[in-house]
Amino acid sequence: MKKFYISFIVIVTIGSFIIYLFSRNSNQLLSEYGLKGLSVTEMVESLEAQTINRDDMVASISATQLIISTDNYLLTFNVPDNFFYLSFAPYLETTHPCGTHNLVTCRGELKNQEFEVVIIDNQNNILINEVLISHDNGFVGVWLPRGIIGEITVTFDDMSITKAFQTFDNSNTCLTDLKLIN
Q1: What is the pLDDT of residues 22-36, one digit of tens each?
Q2: CATH number at residue 125
Q3: pTM for this one?
């Protein structure tokens, strides 16, 4: 019985030490990118606005999770149940296919540009009607209610595009097929 207690204490001690090291190192990672102490929605907004070397970190946002990974770490955070992050990149010439938005590696064509954005749900409720500016990565990100079907209209100069979208648990968080036309 004594061997059992000693083995149990050793296992608990080693497990606690590993958890401590992971927590300390993950906090260092979050601190390094200015994310420590932020909510999930704040972390997503911060990552979208940063230009991070693609070889240093990957940060993807699905309908339900924010996943941050490096060579040494994999951190997962749940998106609040009532929120959905939609990131979109209107374009003129070039785009890329995308379903799950990567806040670090996805790049859009029109960087630091102003867009008139109107987003409505299928009940014709206006969710967003404002001028938004794309980040250095060429994307604009918005938080929307989860569980809706809607339509986004993006206007740039005298060009625009309207596209349907959904914000369900299996919906895409990245819209890159927004070719602006006259």
Answers
A1: 344 578 888 888 899
A2: 2.60.40.3700
A3: 0.83
